[in-house]
């Protein structure tokens, strides 16, 4: 059983916005369509983090992954990403862009990919086309969580 429980929220959730702002992650587009966000609750019912998915034709962009600063380093981020990806129907590939957390995502089964191998719909997301710097590492989930 996972150490966290995910509950779907909207992009207008005040806690989501505050957590992303504190972590210097983009908020400009979180209320646009095609995005699904989750809050992660501990066994005690405390909100410990947030995550999101953005649909890109048949593929997905994993985004807005943040664990409360006081709760980092105890496996919550990994459980949250695995739960978020597990919510998807099989078929599409999962990509993400990160400037600072590539080693964390690599431990979960993501591998760096070159921009020219990334589907156009993923590159066209606001995260990749305008918000994230061009120096961001783009990663693709190669090994689905077991
Ligand atoms: C990145 C983040 C979500 C990780 O959450 P976390 O709860 O601390 O991560 P976990 O405890 O689940 O770590 C899982 C594994 O990744 C490793 N890890 C975590 N952060 C890491 C980092 N920055 N660099 C290298 N390894 C890291 C952990 O040591 C752990 O390894 P293990 O499985 O061998 O024990 C959290 O640090 C965070 O919210 N950062 C700010 C926001 C951010 O950068 N989000 C990602 C951008 S999209």
TrEMBL record:
GO terms for molecular function: acyltransferase activity, transferring groups other than amino-acyl groups. Keywords: Transferase. The keyword DNA damage does not apply. InterPro entries: Acyl_CoA_acyltransferase, GNAT_dom. Transmembrane segments: none annotated. SUPFAM superfamilies: Acyl-CoA N-acyltransferases (Nat) (SSF55729). Pfam families: Acetyltransf_7. PROSITE patterns: GNAT. Residues 1-129 form the N-acetyltransferase domain. This is N-acetylglutamate synthase-like GNAT family acetyltransferase.
């Amino acid at each position: 059983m996972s150490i966290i429980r995910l509950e779907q929220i909207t992009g207008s959730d005040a806690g989501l916005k505050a957590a992303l702002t504190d972590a210097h992650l983009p908020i400009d587009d979180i209320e646009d369509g095609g995005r699904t966000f989750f809050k992660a609750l501990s066994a005690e019912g405390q909100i410990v983090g947030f995550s999101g998915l953005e649909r890109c034709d048949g593929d997905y962009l994993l985004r807005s992954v943040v664990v409360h600063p006081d709760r980092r380093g105890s496996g919550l981020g990994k459980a949250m990403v695995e739960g978020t990806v597990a919510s998807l129907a099989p078929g599409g590939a999962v990509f993400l862009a990160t400037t600072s957390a590539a080693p964390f995502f690599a431990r979960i089964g993501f591998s760096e990919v070159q921009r020219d191998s990334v589907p156009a719909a993923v590159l066209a997301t606001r995260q990749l086309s305008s918000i994230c710097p061009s120096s961001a590492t783009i990663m693709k989930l190669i090994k689905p969580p077991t």
